[in-house]
Design a protein that fits this description.
The structure is a single chain. By secondary structure, this protein is of the alpha/beta class. It has four domains: 32 residues; 193 residues, P-loop containing nucleotide triphosphate hydrolases (Rossmann fold, 3-Layer(aba) Sandwich); 69 residues, Helicase, Ruva Protein, domain 3 (Orthogonal Bundle); 218 residues, Peptidase M41 (Methane Monooxygenase Hydroxylase, Chain G, domain 1), CATH 1.20.58. 53% of the residues lie in helices and 9% in strands.
């Protein structure tokens, strides 16, 4: 009984407090009305009883004063309009809006990453069902961060999400937010989200896509203040854009002007609600972003968008090949030759294949067009050999033949793709032997690293065995072999000791800044593997000569041609009594490659 009386007393006190608040609000409005009436009465009294009877005397002063006020008002308005126009043109964000139905990109067009697509479909479900989600007591997600290497389709996925959700989609590049003057970046972020919320009220939700968000979202630091930071602030630097972005992504509930008017007249009750705006951002380096951006309530979800697997690349190839005319193509082989390729890279290769086919007068692409496009993309345009002496050709040919034969014999999960003595623009090498993985590789064993060292040293071994001299062109090979050996000894614990110096040498690893001279262990490891590859090439002299002479004649060999030459030249002699393959002299013309090995042109 006592508790019931206490509850009634509390309820009565709450009712009285509410009545007091209503009376205070009413008296406040009455006070404002009375002040307004007093001011109007004073103005009317002065006009009727002071100015009107003496209008002839006061008129010229009043008109002159009105003229001055008009001139001042005009000048002020002119300056305001100029500044407004200037800041409107400079301050508006460079954003592209796509309304529902304006883009045809759907989930059916996104290929290569089914796991990522499944997560995107969950986001679409949440965007579509915002109202139901709120009724269950949940809060709609505010941010989705897409992280991954360039070309994996992050922007493409954002457009597909907006299309499937049936809401407006705004695309913005984060660097365009930055402005020349202080405050411009903040104003652009505010303008961006104001427009997004207006569209969200109309369509139920809105999606903003901010590309390269690391341009404005890098982690803040307390260091580096002072005069330098002040100058950066005056010229548009600092963290204004980031701070405003943090505020806009997790804002305080506030009413628009219409809601405020309705509340003033008592026609709207309840708490304020923000229209749902989903911020989708993309970056290649999520580690540099500010922790405040990554917390729940801002970027609630982070989605890794990586390069597609074998099945994913096959799906991407099928999608883009369906859009062009093509002959029968070895699709599985093409997919195997593009390990770690992104969907954008696959699209580029297919398009370049069409360019090559048209250039050669064909109306459908072939595998040769694909190979040309792939090699041009990876290594650049070839530079035909013009005016090179036969001596230099032979040196390059045997140098690369040493790499090629060692690679054929030692590589287990890679396959030689190309051997050439023609220079390539993009890599800056006079010649090359390239190999590619035949499967998705995520780890490497000690034997595989030793094989890499031996392949790198195969050029110097071939120079000593077949040319009897050493060339400067092996410098890059020696540096690569030394780097791998240093990692094995100092980082991976693969040389009898489990000590690793990776954590002590900084982010650059144990060889940052040159690394100094190699240790005895590194030198011993290099010497052992040099002897091994030299023995390997000695046992396969016929294969080395066959590949080298073929390079002399054709300048470039496909991977299958290299394997055929090596397999057909398996240890055999060319008819000489000493049982060894005879290496042609340095100034000899290119030999003729025939089935079964190499035929040496005998000058005698």
């Amino acid at each position: 009984m006592q508790s019931t009386n206490r509850a009634l007393e509390i309820r009565r006190e709450d009712g009285l407090d509410e009545l007091d608040r209503k009376i205070d609000r009413a008296l406040g409005r009455v006070g404002v009305l009375l002040r307004t009436l007093v001011i109007l009465a004073v103005v009317v009294f002065v006009g009727l009883f002071v100015i009107a009877p003496h209008w002839a005397e006061w008129s010229q002063y009043i008109l002159f004063g009105a003229y001055l006020v008009f001139q001042l008002f005009f000048a002020i308005m002119f300056m305001i309009i100029q500044f407004v126009a200037l800041f409107w043109f400079i301050g508006r964000p460079r954003i592209y809006w796509v309304m529902p139905g304006e883009t045809g990109i759907t989930f059916e067009d996104y290929k290569g990453n089914p796991e990522v697509l499944e997560s995107a479909k969950q986001v679409v479900t949440l965007v579509r069902g915002v109202k139901k989600f709120k009724q269950m007591g949940g809060q709609p997600i505010r941010g989705l961060l897409l992280e991954g290497p360039p070309g994996t389709g992050k922007s493409y996925l954002g457009q597909a999400i907006a299309t499937e959700a049936g809401v407006p989609f705004g695309y913005l590049s984060a660097p365009s937010i930055q402005g020349m003057f202080m405050g411009m970046d903040t104003m652009r972020v505010m303008s961006l989200y104001n427009k997004a919320r207006k569209l969200a009220r109309k369509h139920g939700a809105c999606i903003l896509f901010i590309d390269e968000i690391d341009a404005i979202g890098k982690a803040r630091s307390g260091a580096g203040g002072g005069m330098g930071m002040g100058m950066m602030g005056m010229m548009g630097g600092g963290g204004g854009a980031l701070n405003e972005l943090l505020n806009q992504m997790d804002p305080l509930p506030r009413d628009g002007w219409k809601s405020k008017v309705l509340r003033w007249f008592g026609m709207r009750r309840g708490r304020s609600e923000q229209p749902p705006v989903l911020t989708v951002a993309a970056t290649n380096i999520v580690s540099v972003l500010d922790p405040a951006l990554l917390r729940p309530g801002r970027f609630d979800r982070q989605l890794r968008v990586g390069a597609p697997s074998f099945d994913g690349r096959k799906e991407v190839f099928e999608y883009y090949l369906s859009k062009v005319k093509h002959m029968d193509l070895p699709l599985d082989q093409m997919v195997a030759e593009t390990v770690h390729y992104t969907p954008v890279q696959v699209k580029h290769i297919v398009n370049e294949s069409v360019v090559h086919a048209v250039w050669n007068g064909r109306d459908a692409i072939t595998y040769e067009d694909f190979r040309w496009a792939l090699e041009t993309y990876e290594w650049g345009m070839r530079v035909p050999i013009v005016g090179m002496a036969e001596t230099d050709k032979r040196r390059l040919a045997y140098h690369e033949a040493g790499h090629a034969v060692a690679a054929v014999k030692l590589l287990k999960r890679h396959r030689v793709a190309r051997a050439t003595i023609e220079a390539r623009h993009d890599i800056g090498a006079a010649a090359l032997v390239a190999w590619k993985p035949t499967e998705e590789i995520h780890t490497m064993t000690k034997d595989e690293l030793l094989a890499q060292i031996q392949i790198a040293l195969g050029s110097r071994a071939a120079e000593q065995l077949f040319l009897g001299e050493e060339m400067t062109g092996a410098s890059g090979d020696l540096a690569g072999a030394t780097s791998i050996a240093e990692q094995m000894v100092k980082l991976f614990g693969m040389n009898g000791s489990l000590a690793s110096y990776g954590g002590l040498m900084g982010g650059g690893g144990p060889f940052a800044g040159g690394g100094g001279p190699p240790s005895r262990e590194v030198d011993r490891l290099l010497d052992q593997n040099f002897k091994r590859v030299k023995m390997l090439l000695e046992e396969n002299r016929a294969a080395v000569v066959a590949v080298a002479e073929a390079l002399m004649e054709r300048h470039a060999l496909m991977g299958d041609e290299v394997y055929d030459l090596v397999n057909n030249a398996e240890p055999r002699t060319n008819g000489h009594a000493n049982g060894h393959v005879v290496v042609p002299p340095m100034d000899a013309p290119a030999t003729e490659i025939i089935a079964g090995g190499t035929r040496i042109n005998d000058r005698n």
